[in-house]
What we know:
The protein is mainly α. 58% of the residues lie in helices and 0% in strands. It has helices spanning 2-25, 52-70. The longest helix has 24 residues, at 2-25. This is (Na+)-NQR maturation NqrM. It holds the Pfam family NqrM.
Amino acid sequence: MSTFIAAFAVLMLFFLLMSVGYLIRKKVVQGSCGGLGALGIEKACDCDEPCDRRKAREAAKAEREEKLNKHRII
């Protein structure tokens, strides 16, 4: 049980330090490797022509957004 309490205390200390760092610098936490941009990939799916599942997903998303915009009150 004492191991759990110590691990929890260390985790809370890291959260506290990260929040203080954010408040002082106003800089968000970010990775150091650069992600896909470091590899020269512009997007997650680097295909010229997306697959049928992706096309269907994008069409459904566009339809949902269109319905939301159509029935928006404000």
